Amino acid sequence: MERLLLREEDFYEMLSFLVSSAYLMAQGEENEELYPSLRLIDAAKRLAKYALASGGLENEVWVKLFSVECEKGLNLMEIDKPAFTDFLSDSTFMLAKEMKRREDVS
Predict the structure, then answer these.
(1) pLDDT 10s per residue in the chain (106 long)?
(2) pTM score, two decimals?
(3) DSSP string computed for 62-77
């Protein structure tokens, strides 16, 4: 199995995104109750993008699908908040199924 390596540039980009997200949430810049979830899903999508770019994944198909679903979910936030909340539930289930599959394969 190949190792999944994160490029230094990607590391700093992700780190700055997470730290700035924490700062913005603490400052209350957005009073939107779903804003923290939006930022975390955006971070998950970015992490998936970096993992795909590394070329070291065993199952790129699932990660590509997850990334596409995250992109769709991010777009829902602006137009349909209940659908965004449903997306959060669905993405959690999607990830749980993949984690279970990976456990069963090991």
Answers:
(1) 567 777 778 878 888 888 888 787 777 655 567 888 888 999 999 999 998 998 888 879 999 999 999 999 999 988 998 999 999 999 999 999 998 988 888 7
(2) 0.81
(3) HHHHHHHHHHHHHHHH
